[in-house]
Amino acid sequence: MSTGGGAGAGARRALVTGGSGGIGAAICRRLGRGGHHVYVHAHRGAAAAAAVVADIVAAGGSAETICFDVTDGAAARAALEAALEAGPIQVLVNNAGIHDDVVFPSMSEARWRSVIDVAVHGFYHVTQPLLMPMIRTRWGRIVNISSVSAIMGNRGQVNYAAAKGALNSAARALSLEVASRGITVNAVAPGIIEAGMGGGFDPAVIAALVPMKRAGTAQEVAGLVAFLASDDAAYITGQIISVNGGMA
User: Fold this and answer.
1) Is the CB of residue 50 less than 8 Å from the CB of residue 75?
2) % helix / strand / coil in the chain, to the nearest 5?
3) Closest CA to 2 of 67, 86, 61
4) Of 88, 113, 154, 159, which residue is most buried, by most CB within 10 angstroms?
5) Which of 39, 124, 160, 235 is catalytic?
6) 142 closest CA partner among 115, 182, 190
7) Helix H or strand E segment including 56
8) Contact of 221 with 27, CB cutoff 8 Å
């Protein structure tokens, strides 16, 4: 881990998986500005995660990198147990995800498995080890980053829609299990977002798909996540909230 700043006595610790770029980095920076000690997770993007940490520290916040493969349960547990030695992680943003698009009749099993593995198995490998320490504090926020594809579907993304749909269902079910412990679990479903996985769309395509006639920004997604991670969102749980300019 590379570190910067110092977690204050009252600072809540937050982990953002896939925090090294795009939407994840925006979420990390926003949580850092909000006073959290942020664990910026990466797998292969350690240098990018370190740059996000540097940005947070330069802005007066506290952060450090944490690197592991979310598809490797043993590696994830070892890294998280080491982080938990400093105290419970009370804010978890399950943002790590990949897409590997192709129409379903041509989709190989490897393409199917890789997308499911990162999103769904990654959710388990990260969330499960953090949950009991979070429960003991009787306060927690879990936010799964989903997608508009899970709500309205998208050609060529059967694997991605299935993976993100699983995160929606997991959020709803887990929210029921932990609601009485002061922990909320929600999902945020972005649409076409600049610098995110939906980048590179032709403006004419965006105009046809999005009632607001523009792509969203990573900062707009991060703003919603930061709200859901706050005390103000204590009565919001089990919800799938879209950030998509009116697409669905």
Assistant:
1) no
2) 50, 20, 35
3) 67
4) 159
5) 160
6) 182
7) helix 46-58
8) yes
Beta-carbon neighbour count of residue 100 at 10 Å?
Answer: 17
Q: What is the mean pLDDT of residues 92-117?
A: 97
- List 240's β-bridge partners, or say none: 187
With contact defined as beta carbons under 8 Å apart, do 248 and 153 qualify? no
Give pLDDT, residue 198: 44
- The letter for the amino acid at 153 is G
Hey, how many other C-beta atoms are within 10 angstroms of the C-beta on 179? Answer: 13
DSSP tag of 192: S
Extract the tokens encoding 209: 């798909």
Q: Rounded distance, CA 206 to CA 248, Å?
A: 14
Name the residue among 236, 107, 200 with its Cα closest to residue 161: 107
Instruction: Match 């240098």 to its residue by tokens.
Output: 47
Catalytic, 160? Answer yes
Q: Using N-to-C axis directions, what is the helix angle for 122-137 and 73-84, rounded to 10°?
A: 20
- With cut-offs at 50, 70 and 90, classify the pLDDT of residue 201: confident
Which percentage of the chain shows pLDDT scores above 70? 94
All structural domains of the chain, each given as residue ranges with its CATH number in brackets, are 3-243 (3.40.50.720)
The Cα–Cα gap between 175 and 125 comes to: 17
